[in-house]
Write a structure and sequence with these properties.
Two copies of one chain form a homodimer.
Chain A: H1 5-18, H2 27-34, H3 38-50, E1 54-57, E2 63-66, H4 75-83, H5 86-89, H6 107-123
Antiparallel strand pairs in A: 1-2
Helix pairs in contact in A: 1-2, 1-4, 2-3
Chain A binds a DNA duplex through helix 3.
Chain lengths: 140, 140
DNA sequence: ATAAAATGCTATCAATTAGTAGTATTTAAC
DNA sequence: GTTAAATACTACTAATTGATAGCATTTTAT
């Protein structure tokens, strides 16, 4: 059960972009408004482009905009693209084969909570959080 | 939502020890049976002693045994001792003040899943997983 | 007493993840 | 065509986390 800082950054930025889903955002606006280090975000944005969540428009007046319908971009896709599938779905004890051939001692107890998390992330799209954005300064 | 590798190691070892809750285990037996690097586990064991989960008995014929009733050692205590309280309870976007003065855009959607995880970890003691242990080799 | 078998401590190394710097490339305005 | 404003790329640095090494200390068996 792991959510890297990078995934958190992605959530912040994509959530922010979802507010106006058709708009074109410059990297500058995105790192300023979401408290993500500039260069780190720039790299993350090109990754998110390669993953197909957003697309970049180069050159003067360029920026980033969604590449797909945001009602079809689910949070779990974002985490899995960045942190890998094991990060969320993996065994709580870190055993590779757990739930495949065998179950670890904590498997049953953990399964239920894990499924709940996976379902939440799988059923929530960027569209679902579209109108929940607040002033980001509030969170500093 | 974070569970470090170290916490996973702690779960493995404490879960293993719970099988025979009154027994005295040597570090040697513990790292062999639970696939945790020797030196790393030794350090972890002294941490777990300082946290009060287990106690160490020094000298020849020494080892580790539980310091408290295992029906009162809940999984969440273990994670929080090792990874800190924010690791599980923190904001999904990583904002410090979220849920204090303000809520982040994903707060509501995430809250439910998070509470589920926290409840599972808070309500599960080492006693609860006592008889679920299997051969550890199975997970390699 | 001494040796053996255990834990304790501290410093260091390695791997992973997060963050930065600098330059190249693309495109539109003029 | 030149400049300005944007993204793209690559190599490097820093911070965190995981792992190791080596020696010190404690206690029991002999």
């Amino acid at each position: 059960m792991n959510l890297s800082k990078t995934s958190k950054y992605a959530f912040r930025v994509l959530g922010y972009m979802a507010k106006d889903e058709k708009a074109l955002y410059s990297a500058r606006q995105l790192y300023r408004e979401n408290n993500v280090p500039e260069k780190y975000l720039r790299r993350l944005l090109t990754h998110l482009s390669k993953f197909g969540f957003i697309k970049s428009i180069q050159g003067r007046q360029g920026g980033f905009t969604f590449a797909r319908d945001i009602s079809k971009i689910f949070l779990i896709e974002i985490v899995e693209a960045i942190d890998g599938t094991e990060s969320i779905r993996g065994c709580i004890l870190g055993y590779k084969k757990c739930a495949f051939n065998f179950s670890c001692p904590m498997h049953d107890i953990w399964e239920d909570a894990k499924v709940h998390v996976i379902n939440t992330l799988s059923n929530t799209s960027l569209k679902d959080i579209q109108n929940k954005m607040v002033e980001t300064d509030s969170f500093l």
